[in-house]
Amino acid sequence: MNIKKVLSICISSILGVSLIAGCAGKSNSDGINGQSKDNSNITYAFVGKEAQNPYMRKVYEGFEKSCKENGATSIYKSPEEATTEKQIEIINQLIKQNVSGIAIAANDANALHPVLKEAMEAGIKVVSLDSPVNGDSRETHIQQADPEKIGRGLIQAAYEMVNGNGDIAVLSTTEQAANQNLWIKWMEKEIEEHPEKYAKTPLVKVEYGEDDSVKSALKTQDILTSTNSKVIIAPTTVGMLAAAKVLKDKHSDVLLTGLGLPSEMAPFIEDGACPWIYLWNPVDMGYLAGYTLDSLKKGGISGVKGDTFKAGTLGDKAITEAAYGGTEVMLGDPFKFDKSNIDEWKDIY
Ligand code: RAM
């Protein structure tokens, strides 16, 4: 077992149940469960939230790897800005291209329904990942980690960082992003359910930086000038990096936590500006999405509760009912990155 695996297991077991820590190649290899013999025309497309997002590139890295292992071709598509309109255009093109499957990180849960329905009616397998579309707009969803654990865990982290005394602000992505909105909902619920504990750590503001570095930096400045926040939660890799840079430039003592890439956040974790962050493995998430599409296409599953399939090196996976409609496949628990382990992870993703 390599060091990364050992570390993942250690982190998972230490943190327990609370928030824890183109495919090239065309071959005639057997599909999953040996149901299909011909992969020559199989192309799976990954549609990211927006093109400049390094996290989305990491997700695609894993997607591409799984496609290679399955003898399929992969395509990366992302709009320049995190908008639904551009994602609809991309999906329309993919329908014309007659791809075999689409994995989408959605910029809007509802607005993509007509075009994704059209894709499914054309026989294209559709999964969402990272940020879901509605249950009836997809075959299944690749859930990175339990949204409740993420939301509650981030508020608990912020509370701990300010020793139970200090306002909290959130820097999110777009107002329509279903994943971020759900995490924020769980943050609010955690506070609502423990009014005494959080009496001196209210969530005073949510700003939207649209997963754009410049806008996220401006929104961080807004938080600094319009609130008395002592800690910012950025449940977005793009927002986190932008916020960290602003806080550093301004020599601010406002702390930062959220969902960040270890490779980007390492300097801020090392200097203490960001005591700890969380994230799952984005490469594994893309890899799981690729295997899910391939199993839908060739493995005899249809994305209903109870379906099982092999997801390459991730092992056996099961499709379960999603708490928020439709079905999902769970990747696992997020990891916690802090001074004790950031050095091990900063070169991985
Ligand atoms: C950003 C995106 C993505 C989110 C990660 C943590 O890159 O908004 O949806 O899951 O951060």
Molecular structure report:
The chain has eleven helices and 15 strands. α7 (213-226) packs across α8. A hairpin with a 5-residue loop joins β11 (308-310) and β12 (316-318). With 349 residues, it is α/β, with parallel strands linked by helices. The protein has a seven-stranded mixed sheet with strand order 2-1-3-4-5-14-13, sandwiched between helices. A four-stranded parallel sheet has the order 7-6-8-9, with helices on both faces. It has two domains: 43-145 and 282-332, Response regulator (Rossmann fold), CATH 3.40.50; 147-279, Response regulator (Rossmann fold, 3-Layer(aba) Sandwich). The chain has helices at residues 3-15, 54-69, 84-97, 113-121, 147-161, 178-193, 213-226, 237-249, 262-270, 282-298, 342-345, and strands spanning 43-47, 73-77, 101-104, 125-129, 140-143, 167-172, 203-208, 229-234, 255-258, 277-279, 308-310, 316-318, 320-321, 327-330, 335-337. Mean pLDDT is 91; it is low at 1-37. The site of alpha-L-rhamnopyranose has 13 residues, from α8.
